[in-house]
UniProtKB/TrEMBL annotation:
<dbReference type="InterPro" id="IPR029056">
    <property type="entry name" value="Ribokinase-like"/>
</dbReference>
<keyword id="KW-0808">Transferase</keyword>
<feature type="domain" description="Carbohydrate kinase PfkB">
    <location>
        <begin position="61"/>
        <end position="324"/>
    </location>
</feature>
<dbReference type="InterPro" id="IPR002139">
    <property type="entry name" value="Ribo/fructo_kinase"/>
</dbReference>
<dbReference type="InterPro" id="IPR052700">
    <property type="entry name" value="Carb_kinase_PfkB-like"/>
</dbReference>
<keyword id="KW-0418">Kinase</keyword>
<comment type="similarity">
    <text>Belongs to the carbohydrate kinase PfkB family.</text>
</comment>
<dbReference type="InterPro" id="IPR011611">
    <property type="entry name" value="PfkB_dom"/>
</dbReference>
<dbReference type="GO" id="GO:0016301">
    <property type="term" value="F:kinase activity"/>
</dbReference>
<protein>
    <recommendedName>
        <fullName>Carbohydrate kinase PfkB domain-containing protein</fullName>
    </recommendedName>
</protein>
<dbReference type="Pfam" id="PF00294">
    <property type="entry name" value="PfkB"/>
</dbReference>
<dbReference type="InterPro" id="IPR002173">
    <property type="entry name" value="Carboh/pur_kinase_PfkB_CS"/>
</dbReference>
Length: 346
């Protein structure tokens, strides 16, 4: 079978793709730091993602008082479906919020970005990610999950998946095995394909058994960065992509500035990164998934799906946070339209 035919079998099945995300509903509170000196005061390690309790949240908020902050709806899956929605694909999001200002903001911001919200309200405070961006563009997260972490299997219903073609899940949910298994089982019963982002090296390392179950039995499209792929396979990116593509219809391993690898039934395509000056790397992997899934919806070859993902990832790192202006999205869509048309001609 020819390469183009092989790698587009899956895409042709979802040419009218509608995507629903499932993940932690978080409001990103972003602040640009002038130096690294305040990390000790906040009890955080630079460059990491640390779960925090309410006491540490208040400590971080006291540091933020003297800084200019920006709010945006966030969370890995929420970012991905927001990006897909901005590209014009019908999208929804399942998550849990509190009955408070952050919860209201999350709902309204997602809807402003064109996402249908399927949100459950709980008694706890809404989750938030205190996001600190240092002058080198690196981001550090202090994440208070709050209500987001109380989403449970019993709150997921088959009706949530009606009208959608793909369920996109963030790997952070694997810590609740019953929740994530119910979601993928209901999605499969409803005829959806499953897209899964491995989330982080530590998530893969600490939850290997459930992730292996998901990858080998439920996942159709897999996204991992090179560290996550190494944690799962023990191999370098290209070999890891080959291994992962034996279990999933499509496997993607992202390597930052070195680009990405896309695998389909053992055939590997190398995709270069889009060279950009990094201001803030928040959401780069999530927007890569947005672009890749959009490419699939347009019947693009997998190499072009990866190139669209790289374009979105490269563009979002030039702004603070994960939400880009209407002008930037117009520019992106014009470029992507040209890429899709060129791919169809070939």
């Amino acid at each position: 079978m020819a390469y183009f035919q092989l790698c587009n079998i899956f895409a042709k099945k979802i040419s009218r793709m509608r995507i629903v995300g499932l993940g932690n509903a978080l409001t990103d509170v972003l602040a640009r730091l002038h130096s690294d000196e305040c990390f000790d005061e906040m009890g955080l390690l630079k460059g990491g993602m640390q779960l925090i309790d309410e006491e540490k949240l208040l400590r971080i908020m006291s540091v933020f008082e003297g800084l200019e902050t920006t709010l945006a709806s966030g969370g890995s899956a929420a970012n991905a479906v927001s990006g897909v929605a901005r590209m014009g694909i019908e999208s929804g999001f399942i998550g849990k919020i509190g009955r408070d200002a952050y919860g209201r903001f999350f709902r309204e911001d997602m809807e402003r970005n064109g996402v249908q919200t399927l949100l459950i309200e709980g008694e706890q405070a809404s989750g938030c990610a205190m996001t600190m961006i240092t002058p080198d563009g690196e981001r550090t997260f202090g994440t208070f999950l709050g209500a987001a972490a109380t989403l449970c299997a019993e709150e997921i219903s088959a009706e949530m998946f009606e009208g959608y073609d793909i369920l996109h899940i963030e790997g952070y949910l694997v810590q609740d095995t019953s929740l994530i298994l119910r979601a993928v089982q209901l999605a499969k019963e409803a005829g959806l394909s499953v897209s899964f982002d491995m989330a982080s090296y530590n998530v893969v390392k600490d939850n290997y058994a459930i992730i292996r179950d998901l990858v080998e039995n439920y996942v159709d499209i897999l996204f991992a960065n090179e560290e996550e792929a190494l944690a799962y396979t023990g191999e370098e990116p290209r070999k890891a992509t080959e291994i992962l593509s034996r279990y999933c219809r499509i496997a993607v391993v992202k390597c930052g500035a070195q680009g990405s690898f896309v695998g389909c039934e053992g055939i590997i395509t190398e995709v270069p990164a889009t060279p950009e000056v990094r201001v803030d790397s928040t959401g780069a992997g999530d927007l890569y998934a947005s672009g890749f899934l959009y490419g699939l919806s347009q019947n693009c070859s997998l190499g072009v799906c990866g190139a669209i993902g790289s374009l979105l990832a490269g563009r979002v790192i030039k702004v603070i946070g994960t939400k880009m202006s209407d002008e930037i999205w117009t520019e992106i869509k014009l470029k992507v339209s040209s890429m899709v048309a060129e791919d169809i001609r070939h």
